[in-house]
Amino acid sequence: MESVVSGLEGSLLKNNDPFSYFMLLAFEASGLTRFTFLLLIWPVIRLLDICGKGDTGVKLAIFVATAGVSMSEIESVARAVLPKFYFDDLDKDAWRVFSSGERRVVVTKMPRVMVERFAREHLGADDVVGSELGVSRFGLATGLVQVGDFGGSICDRIAAMFEDKQPSLGIGRCHSDSSFLSLCKEQVNTHYPMTKNQKHIADQEIQPVPVIFHDGRLVKRPTPFTALLILLWIPFGIILSITRIIIAHILPMCMVPYVMAFFGGRVIVRGIPPSPPSRRSNSGVLFVCTHRSLMDPLALSAVLQRKIPAVTYSLSRLSELLSPIQTVRLTRNRHVDAERIKKGLSEGDLVICPEGTTCREPFLLRFSALFAELTDRIVPVAMNYRLEFFHATTARGWKGLDPIFFLMNPTPMYEVIFLNQLPAEATCSSGKSPQDVANYVQRILAASLGFECTNFTRKDKYRVLAGNDGTMEQPKKNGRTVNKVVM
After folding, report:
1. CATH assignment of 3-202, given 2.40.340, 3.40.50, 1.10.287, 3.10.450?
2. How does it sit in the membrane (predicted)?
3. What is the pTM of this model?
4. Is 24 exposed, middle or buried (0-12, 13-18, 19+ CB in 10 A)?
């Protein structure tokens, strides 16, 4: 197929209303005040849509969400936050039909800057047609879109893009949002069954490029109802968070799991935890954990009912102050870090997360091999969590608030899976290289969680979130690389 033009909202995305994405932009780029104000005017936006003035409602949402916000901040949210929520709402069948074209164009109601990165990198789009935000000489969005960006001008821009040729296929859902369909030789209305040929394409097993790294505080896409729940919960969440922090500090660790359960926290334990180190042992156990949030060592300590010092690469001073367990700060100087880990193990058990940074999606980043060089007493521990409202880690915001946001969730849940201690033949003492040991631990932890291993590192994560381009391989599945990702 030569060319495909598809609407985004209601076509490639299942949801036809872009309002929740403006709510995300307002929250992540500007804060709670703008988020609240945008929610308050939602009834007006909805009324305009009912009255057939949907374009005016979208313009109003754009103005409230972006006016006075720096374009660099909007671009950062579009790069690091929005792709995850777009991807979760993606209609895979529509995308497969879209991806069959040699040239692919996405049409959106939202400003192009909010969509372009996701459309190009994850949907494989060649062009994105959307409104253009006005920008002041100070680099701030005016909240206004350029005149003529809505309605019939979409047809004009697409016609100019293809010159004298008709696009081969147009994909849309609602007639009012799909005026460009009249330009296409063939049309797909995703409200209705596809033709036999289109269905054959949609049934293929190809997958879009997954979102592996993302940022932002909100766990769920803030539809009006979800946003209202979040706003109503925040005052109670703050009180609950402070209460939980106090409990973790004043109670013995053996009592914390039971009292936390009364306040909504829950830990699911699988496998058999190892016994505490004996006094005659000259070296403690090194617990090697997957890194889901900064609360991983605390969840482990709660399960073991004793305080296990944690090795950390980057932790804010406030998080260290709030932590009820000892933290050992690493420097990323290999020699210095090795000495600190050895010292910690000589004093007892220690927990380390070799990924070096958190990853929210079901993928494991490449493990640093340093831990394998320092001890043969290695116990792999798989960690995972479930949160309702707020993520516990962020790369863009103030990291000192990470533990507070985690504990603001109504019923945070951790799953801790203990694997068997590595046998001697699987450690460096049998002649294996440190990287082989690290790769083996990564594989067995990924298998226990149903995750996939990657070669991505902490540097890759921050390069992607910062918007620096580079080519990285996708995770391998069944021993082969699925495809390439350009980030």
Report:
1. 3.40.50
2. Multi-pass membrane protein
3. 0.88
4. buried
